[in-house]
Design brief:
Layout lengths: L11 E4 L3 E4 L3 E2 L15 H13 L4 E3 L8 H10 L7 E6 L1 E2 L7 E2 L3 H15 L4 E6 L8 H13 L3 E7 L3 H6 L5 E7 L8 H10 L2 E5 L9 H10 L3 H12 L12 H9 L7 H12 L2
Parallel strand pairs: 3-4, 4-5, 5-8, 8-9, 9-10, 10-11
Antiparallel strand pairs: 1-2, 6-7
Helix pairs in contact: 1-2, 1-9, 3-4, 7-8, 7-10
């Protein structure tokens, strides 16, 4: 890649014992239209963003049937199929989109089965490496929803099960099946899922932070580290996430190929211990 940093610089992470990925992935929510609704304004540019990510050794792509809805999964297949052998595609089910700005939980087993089948078809896969329950449904016991996914796994069309937007209590409640990942909102400014991340460390479960580079312009220590290196604050925020725990798998996303390259370059940034402490303490004290 002509000397450009790639996602391989982030090191590797084990997902479920039999899947390995580079520890800087790609979140495919932003390759849809405004408000995560409909087609992107420039579909060819979104396709090029996906291809640039893979060219830079990104081999973990996170998506969901609700992104678009269905748009993100369709574009992944259009851009990348037939897939590289080492590419891990993680998708999610459990949210429906009645209209723009609407995200409605649906954790019924029958819905999750239909959602799984739709994702398989759009992604042109026989099996989904990581299928994540997108959000607990207050009308359905979480153990019932995860139990349904366990049945689908037994059918051979799901390799591993993950959960998203869960609390520590919900995580413990749903352990009716082997859950290998948790995807919660977490970034340098929003540390509300810190206890969940600590639990993932303890349980050796992959933690996938969504919104990993938001609010970076509010932390002076992070801004100072970026100025010293001549890089962006978002790149330093990603570099900090990679230091937080070996179980963290950041998934920054973009529909712009150049932004994808900037995000991937964060894998090669080595923060000093002093910078890590300063950024961590500044975030905690906010």
């Amino acid at each position: 890649m002509n000397g450009r940093p790639t996602a391989a610089a982030a090191g590797k992470i084990d997902v479920g014992g039999d899947v390995t990925a580079n520890r800087l992935g790609f979140g495919a929510m932003r390759i849809t239209g405004p408000g995560v609704w409909g087609d992107p304004p420039d579909q060819e540019r979104a396709i090029q963003a996906l291809r640039r990510a893979v060219a830079l050794d990104v081999n973990f792509i996170d998506t969901a049937d609700s992104y678009g809805p269905e748009v993100s999964e369709r574009l992944i297949a259009e851009a990348l199929y037939p897939y590289p052998e080492d590419l891990v595609i993680a998708t999610k089910g459990g949210l429906v989109r009645p209209g723009p700005g609407q995200w409605v939980p649906d954790g019924r087993p029958e819905h999750l089965r239909r959602a799984r089948e739709g994702s398989l078809a759009r992604l042109r896969l026989d099996r989904i490496d990581l299928y994540q329950f997108h959000r607990p449904d207050p009308k359905v016991p979480i153990a019932e929803s995860i139990g349904a996914l366990a049945e689908l796994k037994d059918e051979g069309k799901i390799r591993h099960i993950g959960v998203s937007n869960v609390t520590e209590d919900q995580f413990r409640e749903e352990r009716v099946a082997a859950v290998v990942s948790v995807q919660n909102r977490y970034n340098v400014a929003d540390r509300s899922s810190e206890p969940m991340l600590d639990l993932c460390d303890l349980e050796m479960v992959v933690f996938i932070p969504w919104a990993p580079i938001e609010e970076t312009g509010t932390i002076p220590a992070l801004m100072a580290a970026a100025r010293r290196r001549g890089v962006t604050e978002r790149q330093v925020a990603l570099a900090w996430l990679l230091t937080r725990s070996p179980q963290v798998l950041p998934i920054p996303g973009s529909g712009d190929p150049d932004h994808v390259e900037q995000n991937v370059a964060a894998a090669s940034i080595e923060l000093t211990d002093e910078e890590i402490r300063a950024i961590t303490l500044a975030a905690v004290s906010r």
